[in-house]
Amino acid sequence: MMYTRAELKERAKQTMDRQYWRMMIVSIVFFILVGKTTSWDPSILLDFKQLMTTIFLINEFIVILIAFITTIAIFTFRFLISNPILVGVYAYHIQATKQQANFSMIGYAFKNNYLNIVKIMALRDIKTLLWSILFIIPGIIKQYEYAMVPYLLAENSTISKEEAFHETKQMMTGEKLNLFILELSFIGWYLLCAITCGIGLLFLMPYLLSTYTHFYLSLKHKSLSDWV
């Protein structure tokens, strides 16, 4: 491992020192439109299970129809809006590690091979969902394995689905547990946010996103070094 959690967090703080307020605004947009901060995001699985529970337990056509339409709307919003915004936020944070990032980067996916980004991100979600339906633990493992897909798209919107899934698999080999532990290291911050009624998120969100970005860049550097 070419990095330590302390080093990643220190790099994140240095990035935040240069442009905290901009990063905070981007994080607010991220939280409203994407609403997750960790690699393991079970929401898509929970939505599916809630729909199934509704269908089997409530034998009312109108309720089933509403549940179906609601689920379709959730998936549509996720695939067409939320996922592209996620890629854009990651593109912003990658740029922020090198220079003063531009707010327009949030819309990166909508201006750069939008359909390719939608397709690959949707495929990532569907694969994770299918694995999670079969077995919860493999689903979680796959979620971590695919964690670098949005970062790869944020740097190369023309990447093919084969390349994206191959590269994320290579990058995350031996790193899934490290990412899980990195996420756990923020538990204290989450508790502080709860105590402050969520006010602490104004600092935590940029901190999290910047730290995970530096994690990706460390893996990228490691992968490049392996080829040398």
Largest sheet: none
Mean pLDDT over the residues: 84
E-strand count: 0
Q: Which structural class do you get from the secondary structure elements?
A: mainly alpha
> Low-confidence runs (pLDDT<50, min 5 residues)?
none
Q: Write down the Rg.
A: 18 Å
Query: Helix amount, in percent?
Result: over 70%
First-to-last CA distance: 17 Å
* Shape, principal axes of CA atoms: globular
- Individual helix count: 11
Helix-strand pattern, N to C?
Answer: HHHHHHHHHHH
The share of residues in extended strands comes to under 5%
What brief labels describe this structure?
228 residues, 0% strand, 79% helix, mainly alpha, 11 helices
Descriptive overview:
- The chain is built from 11 helices and no strands.
- It is globular and about 55 Å long.
- The two termini are 17 Å apart.
- The chain is mainly alpha-helical.
- The protein is 79% helix and 0% strand.
